[in-house]
Amino acid sequence: HGHSMDVEASYVAEMVRAWMENKFGTDAYTAGYRVHTTIDSRHQKNANEALHKTLLAYDRRHGYRGPERRLGDSEQDASAENAIDIKDIPPIGKLIPALVKTVGKKSIRVITNEAEELELPWKALSWARRYVDRNRQGAKPRIASKIVAPGDIIRLEKVESGWLLAQVPEVQGALVTLDPMNGAIRALVGGFNFYHSKFNRVTQAKRQPGSSFKPFVYAAALEAGFTPASIINDAPIVDFSAELDRDWRPENYSGKFYGPTRLREALVHSRNLVSIRLLRRLIETVGIKPVLNDLTRFGFDSEHLPPDLSLALGSGTVTPLKLTTAYSIFANGGYRVESYFVDRVIGPDGDMFRAKPLQVCRDCKQVASSPDNDPVASTSVTTSNESPLEGNPLRKEASDIDSSSARIAPRVISAQSTWLMNSILSDVIKRGTGKQAKKLGRNDLAGKTGTTNDQKDAWFCGFTPHLVTTAWVGFDLYHPLGRNETGGRAALPMWMAFMGKALDGIPETHMERPDELVTVRIDPETGQRAGSNIQDTVLETFRADNIPRNIAPGPSGNRVERVTEQLF
Description:
The protein has helices spanning 10-24, 27-30, 41-61, 214-223, 263-268, 272-286, 288-296, 320-332, 381-384, 415-431, 487-502, 557-566, and strands at 34-37, 69-70, 95-103, 108-112, 117-120, 131-133, 136-137, 152-159, 162-166, 172-178, 185-189, 231-234, 239-241, 246-248, 259-262, 342-346, 352-355, 358-359, 389-391, 407-408, 446-451, 457-463, 468-474, 517-522, 538-543. By secondary structure, it is α+β, with helices and mostly antiparallel strands. 45% of the residues are buried.
């Protein structure tokens, strides 16, 4: 007899099947191996619910596309004798099929595929404005006959108040969460329903990350000597694009220009033009190849990073899993880990093999020269279904790692730059594009929204020191999601629904502030240290060797000139 399934995790199960076949060949199916994954069943259940809830909410916002199909055109055709026809229609996720039997003025009666007869009141139907396109819906329906007819095959969703008219979403989504200390995947959902679409969007969908990529450009800038108070001009840009054979005129999402802007504010509010100018400054200083090399330290593939200024806006491609693994570097203090999902395998003769992942060990001496410790040279499940396994080693916690035997995660950005990025990305949630997440009532959250051109991809990547999670929403065929369907609207609710439950009962944890950081008062307009004659000041944190040297001048015309000097 097979084991009963505690939680739906079909995308993970398929990953394990492919991994086992790759590792053990056809013996994987017959020899009696037992596989233990890194998945946390509670997190997996919450991830399933968060993704389903978010995609169904998006679908309802854009209107009702009509019944799945029709069995007849009259109440007689929709009689109970025909209910047997829907028994062969499977549920999709938690959406069950039902046959509309009768239609009243403000209610309908249906028969489910389990031959159960239900009555749906008006509150279960009234949302169903007719779908016109992704930016338009028809008028609000006033009677049930404007929504369905006898003989229609529809879908029902079970909610707290009863049953709700629903439809299988055309939009898709993905959610993945991992432990930033060792890369262990704790939950993974690759789409709305595995049996409806086996394409795993977490591991297989290479999508443009949009603004969710910006933090890596900013982190590279901090490493190169920029500060959160560095001033970049938010002004129009015109650049000839050989690929488009025309001028490229990028804009901010708002369509506005904000003038001289500190880097902190630019990332908090996701200003496109500042990000482009920042990347241009980096390229002018060191060249495009060194910049691309810096970005590959986060685990990105250089062949998927365009060697031009559009890179600043996330025009490359990346899977949600790879992006989540990259964000783990911000969550864990600056170390690069590898994602993995097989924790241990017990063979038919009782031999045990355990994963040997890269683990963060802040107190361990780095062994950068060891090929066994090189995340590029070692085998990674993110790219090849492989995972470093060895016989019978005992796993130890990150605070008790024996560096002589463990694979120690290498540091890829400094502790100071990591802390500063955490501070900025925390502000994204406190007062920026991710401020809806304040509803979770925690102060240890950080993250970044992402939206691509024409809203074809919506992202939210966020983390605490305990978990790093990415939520993505989009169409497989790259259709636009619709007006205003940004990362903050389309994807952030999924992230919040998951993280709200995942962090329930877990005390807030904040990254320890490293040495060599100093907080001073600055003039918010110039980014320079504030003199006693400036009343409106803000606190900013700098490396001790990178504090602004100049004292901001007082409120005079001279002050504007000083700002202008810093822009070029």
